[in-house]
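Thought: the user wants the 3D structure for the chain below. I'll pass the sequence to the structure tool as-is, report back what it returns, then summarize two notable features.
Action: structure_tool
Action Input:
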Amino acid sequence: MTTRVSPTEAIRAEIDELIANATSGSLMEHFEEVARAAVRLVFQTALEVEVTEFFGRDRYVRGARDREGQRNGYSDVTIKTTAGEVTLERSKTRGTEVAFASRLLGTGVTRTNALESLVIAGFVRGLSVRDVEASLADALGPESTISKSTVSRICEAIRDEFDAWRIRDLSGIELDYFFADGSYFKMHPGAQAEPVLVAWGITSAGKPVFLGLEPGSSESHDAWAGFFRDLTARGLRDPLLVVSDGGPGLIGAVEIVFPRSLRQRCVIHRSRNVLAKVPVHAQSEVKKEYWKIFDDIDAEPGTAAVAVATARAKAFASKWRRLYPGAVECLEADFEQ
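Observation:
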């Protein structure tokens, strides 16, 4: 008889499929889907660990047991997270004298962001079980806090997977496009948000690949250069084009570690910079005009396409300079890049 795939194994397979099937045109949507699936994986792992502790044995294990009874399939449960609503499979049980009740998703538990922040912190910095318990107690209340052993088992399993991923060989990856950015997270309750440096790319075959992430005390030149050197030490070759925001530390690190790569300013970051200098009532129209600079260029890639975009940028500047001079100055600054 075929053994049923566990919900956590199914989610891992789903994440692998998302990464394998994504295209460069759906890059941002692709990573949002992966993020939601990753949140589901964390919570599903926690739920399955709770049931294992309840019975004192893993799925399909026979012999000595702490408690009579058995697992009896799953029922769907939907929870709200910072990645949106996600649906989990809560284990059902039968033949037990005491009903199983999840401490993680007990009655009245609605706040999940503490566990998400915990897992992010655990990925990039290692974690203290004491800090974990304190975070969960604050967010969920003492009646719903998962046990120390559950925390340890969840984090050990996820950390082992992450550690293997973070040192994997990158020599077989040939990149056309390389993206780098910093995302900020609060690693502990009450602490200031700190950056996590992230890199991903598009291969020459048109497939997205998540390359690495690493904590940094800041987005300084040294932090970015160290992060990039770790990638190259594992075999990553210079990409054709590096896309980033305008942070001087990041740009300087790119120029040193990837000296043969072309560099481009991220047009999404620049659009945010431009719109920040436009009144709210006019942002929709200015945003539409901004994207007309870059979208639907029929000219050949290279000099001809750049000439078209440059002419469109000049038309944008002529139209909006009198009303929103700060926005136009922002667009024109480093426009060549």
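Final Answer: Structure generated. Residues 107-111 have pLDDT under 50 and may be disordered. Residues 7-166 form one domain.
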